[in-house]
Design a protein that fits this description.
This protein is of the alpha/beta class. It has helices at about 25-40, 60-70, 90-105, 120-130, 160-180, and strands at about 5-10, 15, 20-25, 45-50, 75-80, 110-115, 135-140. Strand 4, helix 2 and strand 5 (about 75-80) form a beta-alpha-beta unit. Helix 3 (about 90-105) packs across helix 4 (about 120-130) and helix 4 packs parallel to helix 5. The radius of gyration is 16 Å and the shape is globular.
């Protein structure tokens, strides 16, 4: 796919049976990244939104970068790292990527394709649009829950689709309320 940049929304890191964070994408994030590898060409620009470490050694976007480069999916992958205190939510992903793009005189990036897991995609679209991105298309990647595959403890609901849906609906309500409180249009409180 040549043309519009791809913005990849993080979908967590893997965890082991004892709850330790592993330096690899979660089973959900791997399926999203496999989709990116399938549609990207060597010329495709890919932006991995900054995210979390979940107490591990690497950030979600760093694990994604390693995963994508091992598959030779594309050569133009941007992997910004910000050491923000606390948890970076989806709005934070959008704001930190915007900060990265502004710092490199690439803002606005023009129309982008947003890629993330299907259940997360509606809230991701809202948060990125709220932060000023022009979204041409949202790629809603369906994912399967594999027996024995683990995810970091904070994202336990990824393994239980109804719980994941409830989480996304409640987080969307929170983000809409937060957006109504800060009507600047920039997504920056």
């Amino acid at each position: 796919m040549k043309g519009r940049p791809l913005v990849v929304v993080p979908e967590g890191l893997a965890g082991d049976a004892r709850g330790k964070t592993l330096p690899e994408p979660s089973f959900v994030f791997r399926q999203v990244l496999d989709y990116v590898a399938k549609i990207a060409t060597p010329a495709t620009v890919v932006y991995l939104a900054p995210a979390n470490r979940f107490g591990g050694d690497v950030f979600e976007q760093e694990a994604a970068y390693t995963y994508l480069t091992a598959r030779s999916a594309c050569r133009r992958i941007h992997c910004p790292v910000y050491r923000e205190p606390g948890y970076v939510d989806t709005l934070g992903n959008a704001i930190l990527l915007r900060r990265y793009l502004i710092g490199r005189n690439r803002w606005p990036p023009g129309p982008v394709d947003l890629i993330c897991a299907d259940l997360h995609s509606y809230r991701a679209r809202y948060c990125f649009a709220r932060s000023g991105y022009r979204i041409a298309r949202v790629h809603r990647v369906p994912f399967r829950v594999f027996s024995g595959e683990r995810v970091v403890n904070r994202l336990w609901y990824y393994r239980v689709r109804p719980a994941h849906l409830v989480y996304e609906l409640s987080a969307m309500a929170r983000d809409v309320i937060r957006g109504a409180m800060f009507r600047s249009g920039s997504g920056l409180p």
